[in-house]
Design goal:
39% of the residues lie in helices and 12% in strands. With 276 residues, it is of the alpha/beta class. The chain has two domains: 3-89, ATPase, nucleotide binding domain (Nucleotidyltransferase, domain 5, 2-Layer Sandwich); 106-252, ATPase, nucleotide binding domain (Nucleotidyltransferase, domain 5), CATH 3.30.420. The strands form two sheets. A five-stranded mixed β-sheet has the order 5-4-3-6-7, with helices on both faces. Residues 1-17 have low confidence and may be disordered. It is an enzyme of class 2 (transferase). Keywords: Kinase, Magnesium, Metal-binding, Transferase, Zinc.
């Protein structure tokens, strides 16, 4: 029995590790027990198991985060709090939050893709009010890309694929390329142009595969100057092949500030459990 399992079983544990899931789950359960809640939604980092027919439904599975691999997050939450629970990825939660906000502001949309570009890269998509995913949730941050001609020697930082989207544009790529954090890199540095080229390819892929009404880019790497570069690269790459909305409305920053889109999404997904 692992330390976090002992905590959830009521046994004492001396572990104070930040990588101990028990500290996290116990703290969350304690917080939510303060309230008379009717439903709960959990939007977790992944990969996670979302198939309700799987014996590992509700597990965090092959995550590289120390201590969290094969953690039955949802199962232990349900043991402590007996209410209906939605279970999805953090980026799916953000996608649903941005979709919800768009409908509240009377935008005429029925579909949306959300990318979070931070320490890693993930994406979620909503079509007609439903998150997409069949045998698993999307992993759109790990797609292969055409390399920028001035970036051919960079091997990428993804431990699985090297130079996938995450490996080429996630936050750690700044230190890998330049030896400093992204916040310290001037927006005039050509590295931002290289990132824009890769991010625009992701937007083209989502456009041609899903044909969404809107693509939202959030996360710590994203900023208004970068997205302006992305729009220009996107326009060149798409080359008028299909019609899309005005790019200022099509490729956007999140409506919910401070990376709070998933909070809105969780409220909406929890409410959905009670109304369907």
């Amino acid at each position: 029995m692992r330390s976090w399992e002992r905590r959830l079983s009521g046994e004492r544990s001396n572990s104070n590790s930040n990588n101990d899931p028990g500290s996290d789950i116990v703290g969350r359960c304690k917080y939510f027990k303060q309230f008379d809640i009717a439903a709960l939604s959990i939007a977790s980092f992944g990969p996670i198991e979302i198939r309700k027919t799987s014996p590992k439904y509700g597990f965090i599975t092959t995550t590289p985060k120390p201590g969290w691999k094969d953690t039955d997050f949802l199962g232990y939450m349900k043991k402590e709090i007996n209410v209906p629970m939605a279970w999805t990825t953090d980026v799916n939660g953000s996608a649903y939050g941005e979709y919800t906000m768009s409908t509240l502001f009377n935008e005429k949309i029925n579909s949306l893709v959300y990318y979070k570009i931070g320490t890693g890269v993930g994406a979620g998509a909503v079509i007609d009010g439903h998150l997409i995913g069949g045998i698993g949730h999307p992993e759109m941050g790990h797609v292969p890309l055409k390399r920028h001609p001035e970036d051919l020697d960079f091997k990428g930082v993804c431990p699985y694929h090297g130079d996938c989207l995450e490996g080429l544009v996630a936050g750690p790529t700044f230190e890998a390329r330049l030896g400093k954090k992204g916040k310290d890199v001037p927006l005039t540095d050509k590295t931002w142009d290289i990132l824009a080229y890769y991010i625009a390819q992701a937007a083209v892929q989502s456009t041609l595969i899903l044909r969404p009404n809107k693509i939202v880019f959030g996360g710590g790497v994203t900023n208004a100057t970068l997205l302006e570069k992305v729009r220009k690269e996107f326009d060149k790459l798409l080359n008028g092949y299909v019609t899309v909305p005005d790019l200022d409305q099509y490729i956007t920053m999140p409506q919910v500030k401070n990376n709070g889109s998933a909070n809105v999404g969780n409220f909406a997904l929890a409410e959905k459990l009670l109304t369907e």
